[in-house]
Specification:
240 residues; alpha/beta; Rossmann fold; five-stranded parallel β-sheet; globular
């Protein structure tokens, strides 16, 4: 029996470092890979430090390859961008993208996805600028919560504008709700003021899984690829 690498459909995770580094405990890549073993592949296409302008040509390349005969068949697509676009202008990081350009880039990335493929768009997270600056040894904050909030809102507005083309995963709002409880602290969710801790990823998972389940992508709704081992044994195999 030949094993085809294209046998599985895939969930593609497109984003920046928060996606790239999500192969940790409770991370999105880790948990989805476990959840969909032998049912869907999970393809991590996270790029540390990238903004929407940098990711756009990569997204085009991915879909050009997926569109070829025998190419990757995509079951769902997550897009998690904006944290780097929201870097403040006139700072050494040079990652900032104007808000209108962020929206235009994000809209174009979403437009690349065939209408038959579900798209989950994740807002950038709440950040802790002073903690991030301390971790990075920055003399001046290169990010602010208020500015990143503008990009999170623009993400919400775009998904609303697109109607059923995309589904919103409002991580910002979930973190805000978490923080509103006086017994909670964003330090629980953020590793360094920007990237997620295992608890942060757990929170993200609670938002994504119900949407996937609603889209009939619960593991119980999917067939395993290839038969159970007991059915794969050739009929003429003698008993042990």
């Amino acid at each position: 029996m030949s094993i085809s690498l294209s046998k599985h459909k895939a969930i593609v995770l497109l984003g920046d470092s928060i996606t790239e580094f999500s192969n940790v405990q409770h991370g999105l890549t880790t948990v989805l890979s476990d959840r969909y073993i032998r049912k869907l592949d999970v393809v991590n296409r996270g790029f540390s430090g990238y903004n929407t302008a940098m990711v756009l040509p990569i997204a085009k390349e991915i879909f050009a390859e997926a569109g070829k005969s025998g190419g990757l068949e995509i079951a769902a697509w997550t897009i998690f961008l904006g944290a780097n676009d929201a870097v403040l202008f006139n700072t050494p990081s040079r990652q900032s993208i104007p808000l209108d350009a962020y929206v235009a880039n994000l809209k174009e990335i979403i437009s690349l996805v065939p209408s038959s493929v579900p798209v989950l768009v994740i807002t950038p997270p709440i950040i802790q600028p002073h903690r991030w600056s301390a971790e990075r040894g920055l003399a001046v904050d290169d990010r602010s919560e208020a500015n990143t909030a503008r990009y999170a809102q623009a993400c919400r507005d775009l998904v609303a504008e697109l109607g059923g083309k995309a589904r919103l995963v409002d991580l910002w709002k979930a973190m805000e709700t978490y923080r509103s409880d006086s017994s909670n602290n964003l330090d629980d969710l953020l590793l360094d003021g920007l990237h997620l801790t295992p608890e942060g990823y757990k929170l993200l998972n609670t938002l994504i899984f119900p949407i996937l389940d609603e889209l009939k992508l619960h593991p119980d709704d999917l067939e395993k690829t290839y038969p159970d081992w007991s059915n794969a044994i050739p009929e003429d195999t003698p008993p042990a």
